[in-house]
Amino acid sequence: MSIPVSSAHAAKTDNLPDALLPAIRNRWSIRSFGPELPSAQDLRTIFEAARWSASSMNAQPWRFEISFRHSERFQAFFNVLSSGNQAWAGNAPIMGLAYTLTELPEYKVANRHAMFDLGAAMSSMFIQAAELGILGHLMGGYDAEKAAALVQEERPHEIGCFFVLGYPGMPELLDEPYLTREWTPRQRLPLTELVKGL
Ligand SMILES: Cc1cc2nc3c(=O)[nH]c(=O)nc-3n(C[C@H](O)[C@H](O)[C@H](O)COP(=O)(O)O)c2cc1C
């Protein structure tokens, strides 16, 4: 089956409210990547978005490492992913690891908000990426023990997730069930269930 990239994108974004920022509408968790590498400038902009996120006590505990397709590090990241993620993630031009520092540096006490801050930063990153026409996918499915051994960090930390980034590619190169997922509209709980008092 041939599915134009634009059709997959429309299926993922058409049912969102018009009032949302375009980059929020256009961000979705893609699995089909083209081979083009985002420019160094765009990559910097994406990580600047993370850098300028809010964090508890401005601790900025988020840390990232990225790797490029065909590199040894990319392969090392790929190797620890769950098989369900390995089925598609290897086609992305960029794969990254996101972790967070779990101790407040000045006080040597646990940062209870470290993972919250990483998540918020990554949300900004992925919205900024969408603004640049770059999509990504977060991956919490990996072998935790093997992944921990990959992190080059002396300070106390916790892995958040792996992720991939790239430009949309041809969905028809995916196997099932990922092909069908690539053009299945996204679903969300109703706002009434998520927000009390609105
Ligand atoms: C922390 C986290 C971990 C995730 N792990 C995976 C994963 O291992 N594999 C996967 O295919 N998607 C993963 N996802 C993507 C979610 O399934 C996806 O965000 C959700 O279905 C909503 O779809 P959307 O991002 O396209 O709106 C993860 C998302 C988050 C935030």
Structure described in brief:
The chain contains 9 helices and 6 strands.
Walk me through the structure:
The protein has 198 residues and is of the alpha+beta class. It has one domain (5-194): NADH Oxidase (3-Layer(aba) Sandwich), CATH 3.40.109. It is built from nine helices and six strands; from the N terminus they run αααβααβββαβαβαα. It has helices at residues 5-13, 22-26, 40-51, 72-80, 83-89, 114-131, 144-148, 178-182, 191-194; strands at residues 62-68, 94-101, 103-104, 109-110, 135-139, 157-166. The chain has a four-stranded antiparallel sheet with strand order 1-2-6-5. A two-stranded antiparallel ribbon has the order 3-4. A hairpin with a 4-residue loop joins β3 and β4. The longest helix is centred in the middle third of the chain and has 18 residues, at 114-131. The structure holds flavin mononucleotide. Flavin mononucleotide (FMN) is lined by residues 28-29, 85, 137-141, 161, 186.
- Under CATH, the topology can be stated as NADH Oxidase
Q: How many angstroms does the end-to-end distance come to?
A: 43 Å
Low-confidence stretches: none
Give the SSE string.
HHHEHHEEEHEHEHH
The helix count comes to 9
State the strand order across the main sheet. Answer: 1-2-6-5
- CATH class category name: Alpha Beta
CATH architecture: 3-Layer(aba) Sandwich
The CATH superfamily is identified as NADH Oxidase
According to DSSP, the number of beta strands is 6
Ligands: flavin mononucleotide
